[in-house]
Amino acid sequence: MSTILQISNLSKSFDGIQALNRVSLDLPRGKISAVIGPNGAGKTTLFNVLTGFLTPDEGEVSLGGKIIEDMRPHKLALLGIGRTFQNVRLFAQMTVLDNLLLAMKNPKGVSLWAALARPQIMQAEEHANRARGLELLELFRLADKAGELAENLSSGQSKLVEFARLLALNTDILLLDEPMAGLYPEMIETLKKTMQALITQGKTILFVEHNINVVMDISDHIVVLNHGQKIAEGPPQEIRKDEKVIEAYLGKRQDASA
Amino acid sequence: MVQQLVANGIIAGSIYALIALGFALIYRTVKFFHFAHGVVYTVGAYLAYTFTITVGIDPLVSFFLAVILAGVMGLGIDRLVYYPLRRQKASDLIFLLASFGIFIFIQNLIQLLYGAQILTLRRGPIVEGHHVLGTIITNTQILILVTSILLSVALWLYVKHSKLGKSIRAVSDDPVAASIVGINPERVIGLSFFIGSMLAGAAGILISLETNLEPTMGFTAILKGIIAAIIGGIGSIPGAVFGGYFLGMAENLGIWKIQAGWKDAIAFGILILFLLVRPGGIMGIPTERERL
After folding, report:
1. Lowest-confidence range among A141-145, B19-23, B270-274, B286-290?
2. CA of B105 to nearest chain A CA: how many angstroms apart?
3. Looking at the complex, does the CB of residue B153 fall below 8 Å from at least one CB of chain A?
4. For residue B169, which residues of chain A lie inside 8 Å, CB to CB?
5. Average predicted confidence (pLDDT) for chain A
6. How far does the CA of residue A25 sit from the closest CA of chain B (Å)?
7. Nearest-angstrom CA–CA distance, B290 and B278
8. Among A74, A99, A158, A162, which would you mutate to test the B interface (most chain B Cβ atoms within 10 Å of its Cβ)?
């Protein structure tokens, strides 16, 4: 099992609170990994560091064996690390389809000169991108919303469009921050199938999720954080039985549901 | 008489439109009032003066150089002053104060270097203008009108269709979302300062061909530019052009029956009216309150 993203000794603190405390983990290539843990465990902080929105106090991240020197968000996106947000970030003033089109790469580099000099090529490319965008929206039965301004979507729809935009960006690694939260059960099934389909295409997924059934169901690998520290790591069957995990996280849940 | 006022309105509007365009482009990406945009306009004019009159380079080459340098200056202001403030997450008020500071600093610098007196870019005898539809229009005025329209259309097409234009829209909408789809917000901001400042420089040069140069010329210019941008809908590219011409026309037709000294009062009267009735401008996005 090869590692695509290697995280070594990441630490980050805010005003004396240790949000991440020397967290190391190897993200297996072509697998679905989940990060779980109680609220405030450091899951979102981990995502924010991995996507360049926070600078770690110490530690480093390697992609395909090479340390990433420039951790600015757009650089990481171009390197192949894409993400969604817990609080969806769409381009509110743009149409749903334009949100997706912006994420697609234009191999010919659409400069004004290219647009003027080779309009046919431009048009063909634009056409292909639009078709691809509609296809992605159709995955979540949102194709009829293509022309709608993103700000007019419901929160569930926004969430799915943000995920579709990440698919449009077509990165090797997808970091999903609570992708299922607020979705109705049928859509959760669609999302699970989509995640599994992405894995067969060679993508790597790391996701944060509170819905423990989903996590146990589709994850190949689970990382458990608590108070900024990694307390366990392994396949679902092992995590289910791990004493420390049950104590820190699953135990509480079982109590609550009992 | 009316025709001449309309013609004057169009010419004034062309200049306002250029200033408002640059201002709007920059506003879109940074969301604060770049007041120092006015002094970039002044610097454009003085650079053109320096190259043509002091150094004696061919006017066209001079103007081209001056426009590029105005762009570089705008970019420099952003990198040296605004960028560090952005890193510190400074408030809008701090940005506005910094912008005023830059404006006054550079304006005083110009005064020190060139003196406070009026200078002129024009050379040779004054040529009588063309008679068109009962008005007299000079070659300079035609140049102003044509340049302004060409630059406005070019910018509008660019923002609407190019990758950069789309990036500007994206950063304007949500810089965080833009960065996760691989757009570097800082690069987009830098480019909008560069392009916007070139437009200001061009406007400064054009107006000094028509009238004169003085160190304080940027003050009224940026006020009018901001009014035009607000009338059109702050941040909107076609809105800025529309607002520019609307303001130019209103000012000039407004003095049809009253004294010319009321021009500025008309401009600010319109501003206040818009702020009260339609703060989102004509082509801007309606504000929350208007929508309700």
Report:
1. B286-290
2. 34
3. no
4. 91, 93-94
5. 88
6. 23
7. 8
8. A74
| pLDDT number for residue B137 | 82
Task: Write down the ipTM of this complex.
Answer: 0.85
pTM, 2 dp: 0.86
The total number of structural domains in chain B stands at: 1
Report whether pLDDT(A159) > 60. yes
Q: What is the pLDDT of residues B238-285, one digit of tens each?
A: 899 999 999 999 998 887 778 778 888 888 888 888 888 877 777 765
Range of the domain at B64: 2-291
For B59-67, the CB contacts below 8 A with 24+ separation are B63/B202, B63/B205, B66/B201, B66/B205, B67/B198, B67/B201, B67/B202, B67/B205
Q: Which B positions 171-230 lie with beta carbon below 8 A of chain A? A: 172-174, 176-185
Q: Are B103 and B38 in contact (CB under 8 A)?
A: yes
Q: Count Cβ atoms below 10 Å from residue B266 Cβ, excluding itself.
A: 17
Nearest CA in chain A to B154: A112
Cβ under 8 Å to B: A residues 132-171: 165, 169
CB atoms within 10 A of CB A155: 11
Which residues on B lie below 8 Å from A109 (Cβ)? 163
A207's enclosing H/E stretch is strand A204-208
CATH number, domain containing residue B43: 1.10.3470
Write down the pLDDT at residue B278: 79
B23-35 confidence digits (pLDDT tens): 999 999 999 999 9
